[in-house]
Specification:
single chain; 491 residues; alpha/beta; Rossmann fold; N-(1-d-carboxylethyl)-l-norvaline Dehydrogenase, domain 2; Mannitol_DH_N; NAD; Mannitol dehydrogenase family protein; Mannitol_DH_C; oxidoreductase
Length: 491
């Protein structure tokens, strides 16, 4: 028999899962968060839940907000269960369920006035966001794209913004007009220098609207950079059924994740912060070394296993790691091409860090899908792979493995596996990618001409040569043969 999750059923669930030991009625919102998705609920919300469990900082609870259809679906799922979420943390040996209670409400999705009023509430001292890597309106040069139609619309109608960043500007404008201190804007997305990127987006909207407002934001609002890490697959019927079968809990949108979690954050806040260092958050003056390490080694590693696995019809990440050819491909590219160019990280052994990542990728409980890892390559490759290629070219060192990864992505975007099965669209730019990938089968260089992905790196003759050779080999000999030669050291 299962028990439906709600505030009223928490006592009955206490023998099935860890439940909040604090009085949720005593919580008040101090954080407004855009993008209540799986990662946020497995990461930031868990840290806060642990902190509240220590009897601390109960005025820093989470109030949700959103503008996307997925936000409405999440709101519809969470409201009937009193904003509670079951998080199942999984190691290879065991699974543990905890019900988190750090979120206490969610504003009406897309309701401009309600959201701006929430942002203007002086109790809100941090506005955080997880809007995905592709949600920051970044152009081909890596700068904020002020010409994007959604951004232009927000600038033209500042009283009725529709984007997250337009709403943040409107909320800050209202606070300034009321003589209130600003909130901190804290990105929790997996992009390099996420605080800087967020600041550029906010100022990119504010300055054309009101130069004085933009100057005030630039001087008064903190945008800390942060590195976040926890592998958190999507939730489907399998996860809901597993939660019911293994723990007897009925949750409309549970989260399954690995037991590993990490958060490194610059200690720069406009109006205070919760004492997250008490629950494992590492506060530093400069997060750059940590985010470079994670993005290059972990996220780059995901890309390295994803595309050959996708072409070979492998479903899950742990199954890819159980395939010796893919595992050895990952190890060789990481050890020979990525780790040597990652700058030193305080207190961290990079080889040991990679060894932990291998274990995480191989965790059979997570069932992270290859399709998820292949998703949105047009936004992820410029952040996770291309910078490593650029650094190696600058250093005059080899790029054979990274060029092969790029060729595998191109081959994947052609739209069919090695066995001829169709690959369903898996990128916001899928139609264009597929068209270019088909041309690249004959003219490999056109793939690297996608300036929004490769930038100046795509013009390197060495890279173009290695990429073309790898792509032609993939079409001539197939993924297994090409990987076998590369892993074995053959030219």
């Amino acid at each position: 028999m299962t028990i439906a999750l709600s505030a009223g059923t928490l006592p009955a669930l206490a023998d099935k899962a860890s439940v909040p030991a604090y009085d949720r009625a005593a919580l008040s919102a101090g954080i407004l968060h855009f993008g209540i998705g799986n990662f946020h609920r497995a990461h930031q919300a868990v840290y806060l839940d642990r902190l509240f469990g220590q009897g601390r900082d109960h005025d820093w609870a989470i109030l949700g907000a959103g503008v996307m259809p997925s936000d409405q679906r999440m709101r519809d799922a969470l409201e009937p269960q009193d904003w509670l979420t079951t998080v199942v943390e999984q190691s290879g040996a065991q699974s543990l369920a905890r019900v988190t209670g750090a979120m206490i409400g969610m504003l009406p999705v897309g309701d401009t006035e309600a959201i701006v009023a929430g942002l203007a509430d002086p109790a809100i001292r941090i506005v955080s966001l997880t809007v995905t890597e592709g949600g920051y309106y970044i152009d081909a040069a890596g700068a904020f794209d002020a010409g994007h139609p959604a951004i232009r619309a927000d600038i033209a109608s500042p009283e009725s913004p529709a984007t997250v960043f337009g709403l943040i500007v409107a909320g800050l404008a209202r606070r300034r007009a009321a003589g209130l201190a600003p909130f901190t804007v804290m990105s929790c997305d997996n992009i390099p220098h996420n605080g800087v990127v967020t600041r550029n987006a906010v100022l990119g909207i504010a300055r054309p609207i009101d130069a004085g407002l933009a100057d005030w934001i630039a001087a008064e609002v903190a945008f800390p950079n942060g590195m976040v890490d926890r592998i958190t697959p999507a939730t489907g019927d399998h996860e809901r059924a597993a939660l019911a079968a293994d723990f007897g809990i009925e949750d409309r949108w549970p989260v399954f994740c690995e037991d590993f979690t990490q958060w490194v954050l610059e200690d720069r806040f406009s109006a205070g912060r919760p004492a997250l260092e008490a629950v494992g958050v590492q506060f530093v003056s400069d997060v750059t070394p940590f985010e470079t390490m994670k993005i290059r080694i972990l996220n780059g590693g995901h890309a390295i296993i994803a595309y050959p696995a996708g072409l070979l019809g492998i479903t899950h990440a742990h199954e890819a790691m159980e395939t010796p050819l893919i595992r050895d491909f990952l190890r060789k590219v990481e050890r020979e091409e990525i780790l040597p160019i990652v700058p030193p990280v305080p207190g961290t052994d990079l080889a040991a860090y990679f060894a932990i990542i291998e274990q995480r990728f191989a965790n059979p409980k997570i069932k992270d899908t290859i399709r998820r890892l292949c998703l949105d390559g047009s936004n992820r490759q410029p952040k996770f792979i291309v910078p490593s290629i650029a650094d190696r070219l600058k250093a005059g060192t080899g790029i054979e493995g990274l060029a092969l990864e790029s060729a595998l992505w191109c081959r994947y975007c052609h739209g069919e596996t090695e066995d001829g099965a169709a690959i369903e669209p898996n990128d916001p730019n899928w139609e264009r990618l597929t068209a270019v990938a088909k041309r690249a089968r004959v003219e490999p260089g056109v793939w690297l001409d996608m300036h929004e992905v490769y930038g100046e790196t795509g013009r390197s003759e060495i890279f173009r040569d290695r990429f073309a050779g790898a792509l032609r080999a993939l079409w001539a000999d197939g993924t297994r043969a090409v990987l076998t030669r590369y892993v074995g050291g053959a030219p």
